[in-house]
Design brief:
The chain is an alpha+beta fold. It folds into 2 domains: about 1-185, Glutamine Phosphoribosylpyrophosphate, subunit 1, domain 1 (4-Layer Sandwich); about 200-290, Tetratricopeptide repeat domain (Serine Threonine Protein Phosphatase 5, Tetratricopeptide repeat), CATH 1.25.40.10. It contains 11 helices and 10 strands. The protein has helices at about 25-30, 50-60, 65-75, 125-135, 140-150, 190-215, 220-230, 235-250, 250-265, 270-275, 285-290; strands at about 1-10, 15-20, 30-35, 40-45, 80-85, 90-95, 105-110, 110-115, 160-170, 180-185. Helix 8 (about 235-250) packs antiparallel against helix 9 (about 250-265). The two termini are about 35 Å apart.
Length: about 300
């Protein structure tokens, strides 16, 4: 009913899990991730509590193989359960119950575990492993490549409906994530997941721009803001922030052109521009004056763009 992949990227110090299924909201049910600990899935007859319990066991120091063995020994539904876990070292363990609907199974390599049930054929899991191994780029993209490879040769025999992708750092507080994306119901969930990943990359670039602006590194901030607008050309708000950054750097014509384009595409952003305090957007007063737009800035905002802008 579902296929998934767990993996680590030691170079980037990241762990991740991705899943696809012909079921509503698989991303909210099957995968769990915990920074500094690992990632786990519970599928076939899924119980999210089992994924959480596997991560609890790993966090307490149990090896993945021990955590799986202990859980399976105590699970009355083990014949119909499919479980997998990976820790930050890349150690993995998995269980596929004899009652899981064929084709069902799992396979592991160094820092990698793929598993699925009700698959179109026995070729799906090897295709996932090969696609992940052959993919370039960051972990999230490689995980998505594995899902696409599986879907390309049939994936879930029933079809496709939902997908999810989680990436977390290998260290830090357990709640931290780097990517947390879900498609709950879509005719092509993996294409939609890819689109969301593109959008996530754009907003990540904008956040880096915020950070550099807060550090008074205007040239780097502009570079990131422009990258964000290019990665998500459909986002009028990202275009607005890029324009404000350009005006603030002295590139007034280029910046105003972007600001006007953003306001033409999404007039409600004019109200945002009216309310922006100079401490959050130093170029806002100059832009408002050029547009003959009255100010409604309330003051009292943080110094610099900071880490969250105007969420």
């Amino acid at each position: 009913m579902t296929f998934s992949i767990l993996a680590v990227d030691h170079e980037a110090q990241e762990i991740g899990v991705a899943v696809c299924s012909h079921w509503l909201g698989v991303g909210s049910i099957v995968p769990r991730i915990r920074a500094g600990v690992g990632a786990a899935v519970s599928q076939s007859v899924s119980d999210p509590a089992l994924s959480v319990a596997l991560l609890d066991a790993v966090e307490r120091g149990r090896a993945p193989v021990e955590a799986i063995a202990d859980m399976v020994s105590r699970d009355s539904a083990r014949a119909f359960r499919q479980l997998a876990v990976i820790d930050v070292s890349g150690a993995t363990a998995a269980h596929t119950g004899a009652g899981c609907v064929r084709f069902a199974g799992h396979e592991a390599a160094s820092g990698l575990s793929v598993q699925g049930n009700l698959l179109a054929s026995a070729d799906v899991l090897p295709a996932m492993s090969a696609a992940f191994a052959g993919a370039a780029g960051p972990l999230g993209r490689r995980l998505l490549s594995a899902l696409l490879a599986a879907q390309g040769i049939g994936g879930d025999v029933r079809g496709r409906q939902s997908a999810g992708l989680l990436v977390a750092p290998m260290g830090g507080e357990g709640w931290r994530t780097l990517i947390d994306l879900r498609v709950d119901d879509h005719a092509d969930p993996l294409a939609e997941l890819g689109r969301l990943h593109d959008l996530r990359d754009a907003y990540a670039a904008a956040k880096r721009g915020d950070e550099r602006a807060a550090a008074s590194d205007a040239s780097a901030a502009i570079e990131h803001y422009l990258a964000a607008a290019e990665l998500a050309p459909q986002s009028a708000e990202l275009l607005l922030w890029a324009g404000l950054a350009l005006v603030g750097s002295g590139a007034r014509d280029a910046g105003m052109s972007r600001v006007r384009d953003a306001l033409d595409r999404q007039p409600a952003l004019g109200e945002l521009l009216r309310r922006l305090d100079p401490e959050m957007a130093p170029a806002a007063p100059e832009v408002r004056l050029a547009l003959d737009l009255p100010s409604d800035a309330s003051g009292g905002s943080q110094s610099g763009y900071g880490d969250s802008k105007a969420i």
